[in-house]
Specification:
Blueprint (H helix, E strand, L loop, with lengths): L4 E8 L3 H10 L5 E5 L15 E2 L8 H11 L6 H21 L5 E2 L6 E2 L12 E2 L5 H14 L4 E5 L1 E8 L11 E8 L5 E11 L20 H8 L4 E2 L4 E8 L12 H4 L3 E3 L19 H15 L4 E4 L5 H7 L1 H9 L9 E10 L2 E3 L11 E3 L4 E2 L11 H20 L22 H18 L6 H24 L4 H21 L26 E2 L9
Parallel strand pairs: 1-2, 1-10, 2-7, 10-17, 16-18
Antiparallel strand pairs: 3-6, 4-5, 8-9, 9-10, 11-16, 11-19, 12-15, 13-14, 14-15
């Protein structure tokens, strides 16, 4: 059995949150980055829009704060919102110094930032790299990480569970000591020890049948933290992106909200705009409003999609401003300059997650979280467009500084190797594949954009049965990547359902027909789930 791999800092995930933390933490020690696929495969890679940050003479921190609070529907923590927004300009400068080439436009005396505008924003404040911002950031940070001798990247290593002193029998104290991780190439489970562990595992989009997320987004960080006893908040708030390309050749391809920021209109099958009568902001309303309006229009008409119309902008402009989207549509036989773009909503972003403060600190000493996996209080009940990359870079910077300041554990702890007992090789992998499909279809049909308590309860009962089947399979057979994903997926699905049942009102992204209005009888509060307080059997 291999001896444990020891580092000062351990990062689970290789998107913006994980890479930026690693670069900052490496100034004080050694860092391991574990990523269950290729290092570049993350939600960051697929982020088209950009980073929301105040940068123009007509914009202010107060305006950005207000836009965020309005979008968050009463659940944002204002001090966290302000802190993250005010830290934004410094972190944008950090990214630019590292080599991120944000798009500029000519000015009278010098080049100016080409700031975009998206739904819910009252000013232009979106730093972008054409329509492939995440790809540029991912490439630049990954290059810096690969050149850093203090950072080691472990590709195709999948975290199984966090290692805590509590689980090791230290009753006087509890602390995260690292994780067990499956080497997906060899099939061995190895021990990674660290004084500080950052969850940067992204979201849980693959819990739904239709999503803009990559295959790696299976809610791993939320599931591992919950099993370790860390509180989870607001998982009922799943953001459905209004405009995912509807085409058999396109797998979960996102049509950026920036198109609507630049004047694209949403049309129904009859070629009529339908958002003007829903919200005065029409196409620039927040995502929850737009997604529900599209969902309602699709159900009303029976047509499988609606359409984006940006033809009036012309081919030259569209190829220059949206080269990635233009090329992707063209591969599907759609010319944005001449054709309407068929779109449907798809699961996109989890606004809840592992409870942290603004420094990414969780309730479990030694464990930190940043990016989509975390719930800092920035997003509230509905994320404002392009605030996600802002949160990731700001909180990761702060988490790195805070974990360095916290220092190492003062004594050595012996970590036992992974014990697989008498587990056999799995003999019926079709069971895993079937359960995976059932979870995703169940969540799409019963726990989607519009919900009812009856459907939620049905989903919860079936998920409990699935969880029992998966638990029995998990403890009877040797681990493989699909089984780990499925175990996490069904747990996170259950957390979403339980959270939704805990909120008897419609707020932000959580819209339930039984309670179609806000509950103004008392101040709004977060939905907090703890392992000791819920019925989820893990």
């Amino acid at each position: 059995m291999e001896s444990p791999k020891q580092f000062d800092f351990l990062v689970l995930g290789s998107g913006l949150a994980g890479l930026f933390y690693a670069l900052e933490a490496s100034k004080a020690g050694t860092v391991a980055i574990l990523t269950k696929g290729r290092a570049q495969e993350s939600n960051t890679l697929h982020a088209q829009g950009g980073v929301a940050c105040v940068a123009s003479a007509t914009d202010t921190f107060d305006l950005h704060v207000q836009d965020t609070l309005v979008s968050g529907s009463g659940l944002c923590k204002e001090e966290v919102v302000r802190g993250i927004i005010e830290d934004g300009p410094d972190r944008i400068r950090d990214l630019a110094r590292l080599g991120v080439r944000f798009t500029t436009r000519p000015g009278e005396e010098r080049e100016l930032w080409d700031l975009g505008k998206e739904g819910g924003h009252s000013r232009r404040r979106i730093f972008h790299v054409d329509d492939a911002t995440g790809k540029e950031i991912e490439q630049v940070l990954l290059q810096a990480v690969c050149l850093n001798p203090r950072i080691q990247v472990f590709e195709r290593y999948q975290a199984v569970d966090l290692i805590t002193l509590g689980k090791l029998g230290y009753s006087a104290e509890n602390r995260c000591m690292g994780c067990y991780a499956l080497d997906r190439t060899s099939g061995r489970v190895e021990v990674f020890c660290a004084h500080h562990t950052l969850l940067a595992t992204g979201g849980c989009g693959k819990v739904y049948l239709y999503t803009t997320n990559p295959d790696v987004a299976t809610g791993d960080g939320v599931a591992m933290a919950f099993r370790a006893g860390v509180p989870i908040a607001n998982m009922e708030f799943i953001q459905f992106h209004p405009t995912c390309l509807y085409h058999p050749q396109a797998k979960s391809f996102l049509i950026s909200e920036a198109l609507r920021g630049e004047g694209a209109l949403l049309l129904n099958q009859a070629g009529q705009r339908f958002l003007s009568g829903v919200d005065p902001r029409a196409e620039l309303a927040p995502r929850d409003i737009v997604a529900r309006a599209i969902d309602a229009e699709i159900k009303r008409s029976g047509h499988p999609c609606v359409y984006l119309d940006i033809r009036r902008k012309g081919k030259e402009y569209l190829q220059g401003r949206f080269p990635t989207i233009y090329s992707a549509c063209l591969r599907c036989g759609i010319d944005m300059a001449a054709d309407l773009i068929p779109v449907v909503p798809a699961a996109h972003y989890q606004c809840g997650g592992v409870v942290t403060d603004i420094d990414g600190r969780t309730e479990l000493p030694g464990l930190w979280a940043s990016g989509e996996v975390a719930c800092t209080g920035l997003h509230g009940a509905n994320r404002l467009a392009s605030n996600s990359l802002l949160e990731a870079v700001v909180v990761s910077y702060r988490a790195a500084r805070a974990s360095v300041a916290a220092g190492p554990l003062s004594r050595k702890i012996s970590i036992p190797p992974w014990d697989e007992g008498s587990a056999a090789d799995p003999d019926e992998l079709v069971v895993v594949a079937h359960n995976w499909r059932e979870v995703r279809e169940l969540m799409w049909d019963y726990v989607g954009i519009v919900r009812t308590r009856k459907r939620l309860r049905r989903a919860g009962m079936r998920l409990q049965n699935l969880a029992r089947e998966i638990r029995e399979y998990y403890w009877s057979y040797r681990l493989n990547a699909d089984l780990i994903d499925l175990r996490n997926l069904v747990l996170v699905a259950s957390l979403i359902v339980d959270s939704a049942l805990e909120r008897p009102e419609s707020r932000g992204l959580h819209y339930i027909l039984d309670f179609p209005k806000l509950d103004d009888s008392h101040p709004p509060s977060d939905t907090i789930l703890r392992r000791s307080e819920v019925s989820i059997d893990e």
